[in-house]
Amino acid sequence: MAGSGVFAEITDGDEFKYYIEGEWKKSASGKSVSIINPTTRKTQYKVQACTQEEVNKVMEIAKAAQKLWAKTPLWKRAELLHKAAAILKEHKAPIAECLVKEIAKPAKDAVTEVVRSGDLVSYTAEEGVRILGQGTYLVSDSFPGNERTKYCLSSKIPLGVVLAIPPFNYPVNLAVSKLAPALIAGNSIVLKPPTQGAVSALHMVHCFHLAGFPKGLINCVTGKGSEIGDFLTMHPGVNCISFTGGDTGIAISKKAGMIPLQMELGGKDACIVLEDADLDLVAANIIKGGFSYSGQRCTAVKVVLVMESVADDLVAKVNAKVAKLKVGPPEDDCDITAVVSESSANFIEGLVVDAKQKGATFCQEYKREGNLIWPLLLDHVRPDMRIAWEEPFGPVLPVIRITSAEEGIHHCNASNFGLQGCVFTKDINKAMLISDAMETGTVQINSAPARGPDHFPFQGIKDSGIGSQGITNSINMMVKVKSTVINLPCPSYAMG
Ligand code: NAP
């Protein structure tokens, strides 16, 4: 059970503690932040509201711990990460329980998130050993005007303290996707988990604690992002920010200092469907892509752009599948569960009301109980409706009918977002041309957008982000190149 057994030390009564210098502590603020169960809308857990002084202390400790960690052999860093991965997987049940209660993740998906996270940590350890063990060796005479008198040896060194801020929808997986690359590369970590999802993240951190990482290397401060976020992201002790979330990331990018930023932000992933597409395949992918975890995924299909000639058939197939989606509590592993908060549900409702007023066709009746919104397909959506452009982050999917592939590409590229997109066609030449034309970080051909597998590069352009994730890219993002140049007095021995 959450907060018991090996996790008992992370709680005090009904409050979860924060993690500093290898210890679980209560904040001196004496204040806590409530985590509301999205399904019951009652307080499920409480976490510490950390103070600015505590953040200062964490930064100081993380800085000192990093210096020693950078000198720890790479194989040893990998060994500890493998250990943490095994402990994480061993304790998948209590962590998944938190995901169900805090963010209403369906029970099976919650377990999958934890197992996937363990695999990500192990893969990162292996990849880090390979790529960080390599450097480059250059000689000077390849550049005009130089003799062979300079030898440049370059290797990768850590950045320092990495501030990791994940979003609510994958609080464990998107936390370890930052922690593991940072640690293998020799950095220390300050984690600020999302408020909804904080308790799952604290359990994950405890698995790293149990693995035996040095004190102070990994730290976790909790509190509302709106209250401690700016203080954290503008803190002079931070050497890199790895953030995943919504528009907040754009604001952080403007405020942060001259440090590397990894920003994975929102998306409005378009699904372009041509006349020759396999409509059964498309319908299955629209259901999986658009409605799994109630549409609360950055790479969810968020707008369908379908050729008018096949639109009626496709909409009928999708509707038949929508009717079979199970709506209800995450504990029962329902397909559609409550969205994360009341404000999120209100926002989604605002998009639905706007679409209604502007004449969209409702394929199902709009139904909401508390934070639970029934799946809804909106047909005949037009560009003047908000839902054509905004990210609902809920189980509501707009369909826009198009008359040419160019029209679909145009709509996709007119978006401020550019995370992923997908195209369905049997013509690989057309698929490649459309992929080239779509201004997104990734295009999937004949499948819904997806972030995994976790070693694939993953990136957004425009308002969808800066930099690239995926295990290899994240490791390379959390290091800098350091060179040593050996200068010789003369190009070579005089040979007899
Ligand atoms: P969010 O509201 O932007 O929050 C993300 C994180 O930022 C949370 O930990 C939040 O903490 C924190 N935060 C809030 N205000 C902050 C501030 N001023 N300074 C620093 N941190 C602050 O996003 P969300 O609602 O959790 O997640 C949904 C969004 O994430 C969607 O837009 C989705 O598309 C995007 N997303 C993107 C990816 C990707 O890889 N591209 C993946 C998943 C999700 P609190 O919870 O305490 O407010």
TrEMBL record:
GO cellular component terms attached to this protein's record: cytoplasm
Pfam families: Aldedh (PF00171)
SUPFAM superfamilies registered for this protein in UniProt: ALDH-like
CDD domains for the chain: ALDH_F11_NP-GAPDH
Cellular localisation: Cytoplasm
Sequence ranges assigned to domain Aldehyde dehydrogenase in this UniProt record: 24-483
Keywords (A to Z) from UniProt: Cytoplasm, NADP, Oxidoreductase
Primary location recorded for the protein, binned into one broad class: cytoplasm
Keyword Oxidoreductase: yes
EC number: 1.2.1.9
First-level EC class: oxidoreductase
Catalytic activity from the UniProt record: D-glyceraldehyde 3-phosphate + NADP(+) + H2O = (2R)-3-phosphoglycerate + NADPH + 2 H(+)
Residues of the signal peptide: none
GO molecular function, one term: glyceraldehyde-3-phosphate dehydrogenase (NADP+) (non-phosphorylating) activity
Keyword hit for Cytoplasm: yes
Catalytic residues, chain numbering: E264
Source organism, top-level taxon: Eukaryota
Alphabetical list of InterPro entries matching this protein: Ald_DH/histidinol_DH, Ald_DH_C, Ald_DH_CS_CYS, Ald_DH_CS_GLU, Ald_DH_N, Aldehyde_DH_dom, ALDH-related_metabolic_enz
Family membership noted in the UniProt record: Belongs to the aldehyde dehydrogenase family.
Protein name: NADP-dependent glyceraldehyde-3-phosphate dehydrogenase
Gene: LOC113696176
